[in-house]
Amino acid sequence: GQQVMQIPQYQHVQEGEDFTTYCNSSTTLSNIQWYKQRPGGHPVFLIQLVKSGEVKKQKRLTFQFGEAKKNSSLHITATQTTDVGTYFCAGRTNAGKSTFGDGTTLTVKP
Amino acid sequence: KAGVTQTPRYLIKTRGQQVTLSCSPISGHRSVSWYQQTPGQGLQFLFEYFSETQRNKGNFPGRFSGRQFSNSRSEMNVSTLELGDSALYLCASNFGGGLNSPLHFGNGTRLTVT
């Protein structure tokens, strides 16, 4: 079945370092969404990407959607302790099926 | 606008029992989807309801069922509980269903099966 693979599973960084998580789908996606889940919390919507090659920025966060619409990335510049949490991507296929990646858990050492 | 409300927040059950979880979506949202979250397993999709009809179903056994009412509130039922059913159960609502628009998650129900 359709899967969205997310890597890495865990990432430990020193505060101020950059962080990137990647999502790869076995099939073409019509859109992809990103969510952040703080420890003990619930996933919160960050952004949605729809267009091939799309790049969106939210302050220190940069989101990209691949040209083939099969992969996406989230990059955080100069991480802060407030960035800790698990980042999930969620992709929707053209057939309407949706699936979440397994998430990347980010820890930031002050 | 009130967020997605899930009740109860915590639940402890014993093996073999059954449980019903409730989810009230954001007002105006017609779609409710359910997810199981366990450590290291990410968010596993259970099912999605839209206007009282199940639109999609994940790969869970028939012990997991759900329904949606005319006011869009949804319930999820798990029968004959197993130890492996211990997890955080999250529901999410949005207007159009699927990933057409952002999902708004509730705080979840943490189920412990002993």
TL;DR?
Chain A is an all-beta fold and 110 residues long. Chain A is 0% helix and 58% strand. In chain B, the strands form two sheets. In chain B, strands 2, 4, 5, 6, 9, 10 and 11 form a seven-stranded mixed sheet that branches.
Task: Give an overview of the whole structure.
The complex is a heterodimer of chains A (110) and B (114). Chain A is mostly beta strands and 110 residues long. Chain A has strands at 4-7, 10-14, 19-25, 29-37, 44-49, 55-58, 61-65, 71-76, 85-93, 98-100, 104-109. In chain A, the strands form 2 sheets. In chain A, strands 2, 4, 5, 9, 10 and 11 form a 6-stranded mixed beta sheet that branches. Chain A is globular. The N and C termini of chain A lie far apart (41 Å). Chain B has 114 residues and is mainly beta. Helices cover 0% and strands 53% of the residues of chain B. Chain B is built from no helices and 11 strands. In chain B, strands 2, 4, 5, 6, 9, 10 and 11 form a 7-stranded mixed beta sheet that branches. A 4-stranded antiparallel beta sheet of chain B has the order 1-3-8-7, with no helix packed on it. Chain B is globular, with a radius of gyration of 13 Å.
